[in-house]
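Tokens in:
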């Protein structure tokens, strides 16, 4: 029977296959025709110019050779242009979207891009399963972590947008997988490939270029928690990571030096984001607390409607009327009026960061919370709460080093973006993997909270439901069997103790 064969399949492949089907259904349901947002249109314009002229420019030029630019990171438009060379329908579509705009819609012309991004999401989940299994040694925990990541990550939504979030996600988890393999096998080649991956990430989202610095630091610092530290090997691996990243970022930076006189990866959006970030410096103490409430994942919007004044709550929205993000235009205009036309980025840092360090530190903490939230899922709150518990457990078991190798760079990236950007929620999507793994590792299952679990477990002194449902109220046994799975180690220990008592008798 095909169904029996399916049940006998490898559980790892079965988990990914089921999630892949769910993702495909989500993408199909959401991929209806719609107009492009302004930031999506900008990506399409650059991709169309790359396709027609082979030149990275800041906008679409139909009949003349465009002027080179660097308004956004080049990686994602390059992926779209490369895919368009393989798919004539996509090539026609992005030319239409670049030239006619309102006459074209998204679903039809960009179908192959949506499919590619859905495959990126499935690949990212598969790599996340691999990392979770490596870190936990448990197929069950790895499967649960992958499922939680899928639920928290809005993969279906991002697959249909012309945004690089799923490309960032797959590269980020591939980077982590390479670090774990390199550390386990002591492979300098894997470290070098990991560095190349970090460099590619920097060409997709410039703030992820910070991984080229954060990952080597996490590698060396994490060596302290190994049973047999080898700082010499860690330093060599860190050097290979940095060399691999520079090898990818170097040509693009060299091109910018030749064309623009400096090695900055982009020119324009990082200054706009910095100006938007400094809009939060003006918040009072009460407004900072209101921001924490507004950005609680899953329930922040509803909760803020009850305890936060509507005018204050609007300040923390995403480019809506009343949002502080719109204040970035005024701050940037003031910087230029003050004579900062040549380099407003550094002028903003000197004026609003070094000139007002206390407000800068307070707003950075708020924006770090926003970055750590990273999703509208209520599960994120659970993840934030159990990460300290997992760190304590791993430290006691001397297993903290590999986890820090994965979690450290992503946590550091949240801090970097809190210092330099408004830390928009989609910028830190990979951090959700840390929460998923923490929940799966700490709970061992989707446990019920506090007294409800005790009600289902009845008088069972161990606090877990026994395999035959003993100690569980009759009405609750069907629910308990589903929601209160017995960890295999507990069941195995109970069976072993019963057999031992039988032999003694």
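Residues out:
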């Amino acid at each position: 029977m095909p169904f029996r064969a399916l049940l006998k399949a490898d559980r790892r492949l079965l988990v990914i296959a089921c999630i892949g089907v769910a993702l495909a259904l989500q993408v199909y349901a959401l991929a209806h025709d719609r107009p492009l947002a302004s930031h999506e249109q900008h990506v399409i314009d650059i991709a169309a110019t790359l396709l027609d002229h082979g030149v990275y420019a800041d906008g679409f030029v139909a009949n003349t050779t465009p002027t080179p630019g660097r308004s956004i990171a080049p990686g994602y438009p390059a992926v779209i242009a490369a895919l368009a060379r393989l798919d004539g329908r996509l090539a026609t579509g992005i030319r239409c979207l670049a030239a006619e705009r309102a006459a074209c819609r998204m679903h039809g012309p960009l179908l192959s891009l949506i499919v590619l991004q859905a495959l990126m999401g499935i690949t990212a989940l598969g790599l996340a399963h691999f990392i979770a299994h490596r870190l936990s040694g448990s197929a069950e925990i790895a499967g649960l972590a992958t499922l939680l990541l899928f639920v928290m990550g809005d993969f279906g939504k991002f697959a249909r947008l012309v945004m690089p979030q799923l490309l960032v996600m797959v590269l980020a988890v591939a980077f982590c997988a390479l670090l774990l393999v390199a550390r386990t096998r002591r492979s300098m080649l894997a470290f070098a490939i990991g560095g190349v991956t970090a460099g590619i990430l920097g060409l997709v989202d410039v703030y992820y270029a910070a991984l080229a610095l954060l990952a080597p630091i996490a590698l060396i610092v994490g060596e302290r928690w190994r049973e047999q530290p080898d700082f010499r090997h860690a330093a060599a691996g860190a050097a290979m990571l940095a060399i691999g990243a520079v090898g990818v970022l170097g040509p693009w930076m060299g091109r910018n030096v030749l064309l623009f006189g400096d090695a900055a990866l982009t020119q324009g959006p990082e200054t706009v984001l910095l100006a938007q970030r400094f809009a939060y410096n003006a918040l009072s103490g009460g407004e900072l607390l209101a921001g924490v409430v507004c950005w609680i994942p899953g329930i922040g919007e509803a909760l803020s409607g009850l305890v936060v004044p509507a005018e204050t709550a609007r300040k923390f929205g995403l480019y809506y009327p009343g949002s502080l993000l719109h204040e970035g235009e005024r701050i940037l205009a003031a910087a230029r009026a003050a004579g900062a036309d040549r380099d407003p980025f550094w002028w903003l840092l000197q004026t609003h960061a070094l000139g007002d360090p206390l407000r800068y530190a307070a707003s950075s903490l708020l924006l770090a919370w926003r970055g750590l939230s990273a999703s509208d899922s209520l599960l994120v709150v659970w993840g934030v709460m159990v990460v300290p518990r997992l760190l304590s457990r791993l430290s006691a078991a001397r297993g903290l080093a590999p986890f820090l190798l994965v979690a450290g760079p992503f946590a550091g990236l949240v801090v970097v973006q809190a210092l330099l950007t408004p830390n928009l929620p989609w910028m830190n999507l990979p951090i959700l993997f840390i929460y998923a793994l923490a929940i799966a590792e700490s709970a061992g299952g989707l446990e019920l909270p506090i007294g409800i679990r005790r009600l289902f477990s009845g008088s069972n002194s161990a606090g877990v439901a026994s395999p035959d449902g003993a100690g569980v109220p009759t009405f609750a046994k069907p629910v308990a069997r589903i929601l209160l799975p017995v960890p295999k180690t507990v069941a195995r220990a109970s069976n072993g103790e019963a057999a031992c008592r039988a032999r003694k008798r």
